[in-house]
Design a protein that fits this description.
Growth Hormone, Chain: A, mainly alpha, disordered N terminus, 22 helices
């Protein structure tokens, strides 16, 4: 697993310089590759509450228990993400970003095809949920290495002043993948119940193969990260264990990054996984309509994330993320009131408030916020660790916690979720507040090194 696997045509210009063409290709590759990865990962999330409880668990089981177990398997994918992040971060910091991203995309595609071809509980019994757990864990490993690698490939190919926006291009692969996943699944959800559960839900998973081929081609053509090339030429790439350096050199930065990511990621998973079956269960809208509402909000989300990231390039990561936290606290109760209104248009508006406003306002700058906490030679591992552990605390636990909180005997229902979210956002905001402003850090570090070198020369 060596950087020598790259083709001669893909070698960056001398001294790690990059051209505008290289930058554009890196942005497109990161965006489309991340889109494919999250299409596969979130397709499972969308199906977890609608399909899997009926197909991969015993028909004699309580449906509520089947849904809960399906969410447990969903959590298994999130738990494995930090492991994947550390694994691929290790090799990405030692040998480069490009090859790792090729491998993660290939893994994701193979797993989705396997899920699409899986026999049900009726055919193979308890082996069905066990195989589903294994495939979900492999998915988590792949996504764990994908997010940081794609974000860094985009951010490290552009100038410092544009890194927030560039990093967000890869981050928008998440909502874009969600749009594709919910749109395709929603189209097939309009089939008669028997046809949908028999074969309709499988087609979106199998369609992943075509997307993976396109993504692999683009990743084959992209150049290696110029920041990594410069670090390697300067002898700054170490032969040790990157995770140990990250834990030793950046303990507080890592902790603040984890906590900062947890709040917005909770809202992301809550909307993508829990709220669709929840609003369907109230009888206000049907399954297909709920999926289309989520799809529409995810589409707007694609543009909201870069907007807030662009603001962070202008005003700093901390001010934008702290303002996003305040917006989140102010809007979460109105959002749930709309979800519970029984009104078609208010439920649709609730998804719009939740994704493009509450979630994106704090999540948009997160790629650059995390990447700028770490030096180049430790960055892949550091970003993977912080984001993926944050995803376990936030997104991975969201469906299970929401199910438990709604069912509490105090009768507060979704208000319990709202209060929990406010507490989590408060922790995330505190972590952002305690963090140093990272916008322009590379320029400041470069100036400091040049001043030190000049002083030593004298």
């Amino acid at each position: 697993m060596s950087s020598n696997l790259s083709t001669p045509a893909a070698v960056p210009p001398a001294h790690g310089e990059t051209t505008e063409k290289d930058s554009r290709r890196a942005l497109v590759s990161s965006f489309l590759g991340s889109t494919v990865e999250y299409y596969d990962f979130l397709l499972y999330a969308a199906a977890a509450g609608l399909v899997f409880p009926k197909l991969f668990f015993s028909s004699e089981m309580d449906p509520a228990l089947g849904t809960m177990l399906s969410f447990v398997i969903l959590l298994a994918g999130y738990v494995s993400r930090p492991i994947g992040g550390i694994l691929f971060g290790h090799f990405g910091d030692k040998f480069g970003r490009k090859n790792m991203l090729f491998i993660t995309l290939m893994m994701m595609g193979v797993v989705s095809i396997c899920i699409g071809l899986m026999p049900t509980y009726a055919a193979i019994g308890v082996a069905a949920p066990l195989i589903l757990v294994l495939l979900r864990v492999i998915q988590g490993l792949a996504v764990g290495g994908e997010w940081a690698g794609a974000t860094l490939m985009a951010a490290e190919h552009v100038k410092e002043k544009n890194r927030g926006f560039a990093a967000s291009i890869a981050v928008t692969g998440g909502p874009t993948g969600s749009v594709l996943a919910t749109l395709v699944l929603g189209l097939f959800a309009g089939l008669p119940e028997e046809a949908f559960l028999s074969w309709g839900w499988r087609i979106p998973f199998l369609m992943s193969a075509a997307l993976v081929v396109i993504g692999l081609y683009l990743r084959y053509r992209v150049t290696e990260s110029p920041d990594f090339v410069k670090a390697r030429e300067a002898g700054e790439v170490h032969t040790g264990v990157p995770i140990m350096r990250v834990l030793r050199k950046y303990p507080l930065s890592s902790l603040y990054g984890i906590l900062a990511a947890a709040g917005p990621l909770f809202m992301q998973a809550l909307l993508a996984v829990f709220m669709v079956p929840y609003v369907v269960s109230t009888g206000a809208v049907d399954r297909q309509t709920a999926l289309m509402m989520l799809t529409a909000s995810s589409f707007v989300h694609i543009f909201a994330i870069p907007f807030f990231a662009w603001l962070s390039d202008k005003f700093g990561r901390r001010p934008v993320m702290l303002a996003g936290a305040a917006v989140s606290v102010a809007l979460v109760f109105p959002m749930f009131a709309m979800f519970n209104s029984g009104s078609y248009w208010l439920i649709a508006l609730a998804f719009m408030v939740g994704n493009p406003i509450i979630q994106a306002s704090m999540y948009g700058p997160i790629g650059a916020f995390l990447a700028e906490k770490f030096e180049t030679q430790d960055r892949y591992t550091g970003v993977s660790l912080t984001f993926q552990v944050g995803s376990v605390l936030g997104a991975g636990t969201a469906p299970l916690l929401a199910t438990w909180l709604v069912g509490l005997e105090n009768g507060a229902g979704t208000s319990n979720i709202a209060w929990y979210f406010i507490g989590l956002i408060a922790v995330s905001a505190l972590a952002v507040y305690l963090s140093k402003e990272t916008r322009g850090r590379a320029d400041r570090d470069r100036t400091a090194r040049e001043d030190a070198a000049a002083a030593n020369a004298v």
